[in-house]
Amino acid sequence: MFNQYIQVTRSSMPNFEEYIEEIRELWGSHWLTNMGVKHQRLEEELIKYLEVPNAALFTNGHLALECAIAAMNLAGEVITTPFTFISTTHAIVRNGLTPVFCDIDPKTYTIDVNKLESLITEKTSAIVPVHVYGNVCDVNAIEEIAKKYNLKVIYDAAHAFGATVNGRGIATYGDASMFSFHATKVFNTIEGGAITYNDSKLTKVLNELKNFGITGQESVEYIAGNAKMNEFQAAMGICNLRHVDEEIQKRKVVVDRYNERLSGVNGIKLSKTREGIKSNYAYYPVVFDGYKLSRDEVTELLKSENIYARKYFYPLTNEFECYKNKFDCGQTPIAKYISDRVLTLPLYADLSLEDVDTICDIILR
Ligand SMILES: *Cc1c(COP(=O)(O)O)cnc(C)c1O
Fold first, then answer.
1. Position in ligand 1 atom list of the atom nearest CA 184
2. To pair with 170 at 20 to 30 A between CA atoms, which of 25, 137, 277, 352?
């Protein structure tokens, strides 16, 4: 029995002095939010790191996604996947749009591009795919379909910070990508998020959407909420960004060990990334399908040893109370199948290989 708990994740933090140094000047300026110096600096650094033309920071990833969708002036239906965090579906619905759920690919758990086209109607205005677990979607196929039908593409890239496709940054695909900088993500600003986007004409509207729709000192041209990132969040981001490559490298070591221990085991299915993808090792999903223990039994067994894995994503978003009378998870059978069997194992940069071995020993015992 572990004396300590092992949680599914643990937030990355810079050392204390580094953060204190970063926020020191705020005691001189008394400028704590509303696009101050830290905010500007983090935005510039993220543009460089993610190799994108534009980025806008937000107080969290969810509001970033809501604002990105709002900025595109969409109507009607949006094709998306139910195999995601509830935020993705909420962001579509809270914009007054109708989600249309597409099933997922059984290997990568991302949206199945072979089923996408059959869901397009004259009401479809956009696609919101999700780079689940940092597994990158089939971005080229999605781009082709979007071009053919003149649809906007907004990626939920909450899991995919730092991932690349054949050396090209993940954020350069589609019209926009949302990143979450929540404490549990690979890169965090405590709470936080960003939209990266190609068309610089969106800058003005994204900045207004996160600031009540204020368009000038004495003008408010439309109705919007408040989603600004503050200086303390941005300072945390500036510090964490200095170490993120090292953190991703440490995650890789943990993932390699899990793969070594769990690959080739009958009834245990590991997640596959597409050719040419550099992963950020955000999550370690395992599908128990025909294993001697069910997913729920493995979860309980680990819990009895103070190890907390997570049934992520379970239930599907189209199964939750707020959506289940409107949607039918039977229409996305592969997503349903994976969701009933998947477990994400503990994974963070400082997880020791001894702990990984203990977790695998318990599962394989
Ligand atoms: C974390 C997450 C979000 C929401 O981001 P927050 O920063 O927590 O608001 C949205 N979608 C997915 C897939 C996520 O994992």
1. 1
2. 352
Residue 216 sits at the vertex; the CA angle it makes with 214 and 219, to the nearest 5 degrees, is 70
**Above 70 in pLDDT, residue 117?**
yes
CA–CA gap between residue 49 and residue 180 (Å, rounded): 15
CA dist., res. 255 & res. 267, Å (int): 19
Query: From the DSSP assignment, how many helices (H) and strands (E) are in the chain?
Result: 12, 15
Least Cα distance to 190 among 9, 13, 47 occurs for 13
Distances (CA, A) of 295 to 147, 183, 312, 328, 334: 40, 26, 11, 23, 16
Ramachandran angles phi, psi of 40, nearest 5°: -60, -40
Q: Give the number of the atom of ligand 1 that is nearest the alpha carbon of residue 87.
A: 10
- Rounded Cα gap, residues 133 and 127, in angstroms: 19
Query: Which residues, including other chains, have CB under 8 Å from residue 332's CB and lie 6 or more apart?
Result: 81, 82, 83, 101, 102, 103, 104, 316, 318
How does residue 1 score in pLDDT terms, banded at 50, 70 and 90? very low
Establish whether residue 57 lines the binding site of ligand 1, counting it when its CB lies within 6 angstroms of any ligand atom: no
> For 121-149, how does the pLDDT look when each residue is reduced to its tens digit (9 = 90+)?
999 999 999 999 999 999 999 999 999 99
Residue bearing tokens 């800058």: 203
| Domains of the chain as residue ranges with CATH | 16-238 (3.40.640.10), 244-364 (3.90.1150.10)
CA distance 317 to 81: 8
Q: Is the pLDDT of residue 2 over 70?
A: no
- Nearest-angstrom CA–CA distance, 158 and 148: 26
State whether the beta carbon of 159 lies less than 6 angstroms from ligand 1. Answer: yes
pLDDT tens sequence across 222-278:
999 999 999 999 999 999 999 999 999 999 999 999 999 999 999 999 988 788 999
Residue 325 CA to ligand 1 center (angstroms) comes to 24
CB contact set of 196 (below 8 Å; sequence gap of 6+): 46, 47, 50, 52, 54, 55, 171, 172, 176, 177, 179
